[in-house]
Specification:
Distance between the termini of chain B: 22 Å
Number of strands of chain B: 5
Helix content of chain A: 10-25%
Strand order of the largest sheet of chain A: 3-2-1-4-5
Number of domains of chain A: 1
Strand content of chain A: 25-35%
CATH superfamily of chain B: Toll/interleukin-1 receptor homology (TIR) domain
Distance between the termini of chain A: 39 Å
Largest sheet of chain A: 5 strands, mixed
Number of helices of chain B: 8
Structural class of chain B: alpha/beta
Helix content of chain B: 40-55%
Number of strands of chain A: 5
Oligomer: heterodimer
């Protein structure tokens, strides 16, 4: 196991800045008892789905059509459970 | 931060309670209060004197007594949380200071009337159950602040979703900075307070809340 890493005030500041909405990263995450896909840094969802599986299937299309990128699949507590890289169409 | 915005957090700091303590700290900060926890102090100070200092510096306190049980069969139960709760209630009750008499506390347990089996003397206090569920814990803390402050506060749903958004935004950034999952799982609670303190204002500003 690596030495414990600490968060400095400076690091927290850089992490606290919201991501650029032009990022090629997408998140599948819970919202209001449904599941959404949203782009990193965006507020609005690109799509809303009844189940996480539906959102996971859709995010591949979304990322590939955006010339490739990354999808982060989150659990109900917000933690990442899977990271997937997709290449563009 | 002032006495009126400080909240003394009295709960376990072990890994098993992490999934509740993180959303608890997030909620307190999201509602514009300042959590004071023992973990942030240097180990050079005598622990009880630091706890007493935090109790006297905080108008509010949240005590979680859901873990006052033996960690292993044959061990004695842990008494730190009930002890610190007693110090806090005693501070409010016996203090000659008008300021300290204003203190208020929320007591959390995992089941509604479990406390009656081991600490029935607290029956007159504000005791709420969280069922070991982060969403319910957020709801109870928000409800309590709404009741004692008598003002409108963000909904429990807004806070829970914000907490999920925090992880969505933060975890992959940490990983890009070469924090492993194990590193993230072992960040201290003072690390989380730093992260929450930077993230929450930016999130609220972006959403106009």
């Amino acid at each position: 196991m690596s030495d414990k890493k600490k968060i400095t005030k400076q690091l927290a500041k850089s992490i606290g800045r919201l991501a650029s909405v032009h990022s090629n990263r997408y998140h599948v995450m819970p919202r209001a008892n449904k599941w959404i896909i949203r782009r990193d840094g965006a507020i609005r969802a690109l799509g809303i789905y009844k189940t996480r599986n539906e959102a996971v299937k859709k995010v591949e299309d979304v990322v590939r059509s955006s010339h490739g990128g990354y999808a982060y699949i989150h659990g109900k507590d917000g933690r990442i459970v899977e990271e997937v890289t997709y290449f563009g169409d | 931060m002032s006495f009126k915005r400080n909240v003394f957090i009295n709960c376990p700091f072990d890994d098993a309670y992490r999934s509740l303590l993180q959303p608890l700290l997030f909620t307190v900060l999201y509602l514009d209060f300042n959590p004071l926890i023992s973990e942030t102090e240097s180990s050079g100070n005598v622990r009880v004197s630091e706890i007493i200092r935090r109790i006297k510096d905080s108008k509010y306190a949240i005590h979680d007594i859901s873990r006052n049980e033996a960690l292993n069969p044959g061990d004695l139960p842990r008494f730190n949380m009930p002890y610190e709760m007693g110090l806090d209630i005693g501070c409010q009750t016996f203090s000659g200071s008008e300021k300290l008499k204003q203190k208020q506390c929320l007591i959390l347990d995992r089941e509604k009337y479990r406390y009656q089996r081991f600490i029935s003397d607290i029956a007159g206090q504000d005791i709420k159950d969280h069922n070991d569920t982060p969403e319910i814990l957020i709801k109870r803390v928000r409800e309590w602040f709404t009741t004692i402050l008598n003002i409108h506060l963000p909904s429990p749903t807004e806070i829970w979703e914000a907490y999920g958004e925090f992880w969505a935004d933060t975890e992959e950034k940490l990983k890009r900075m070469r924090f492993t999952t194990d590193d993230i799982n072992h960040l201290t609670f003072s690390d989380f307070i730093l992260l929450f303190n930077e993230w929450i204002p930016n999130y609220k500003a972006a959403r106009g809340v």
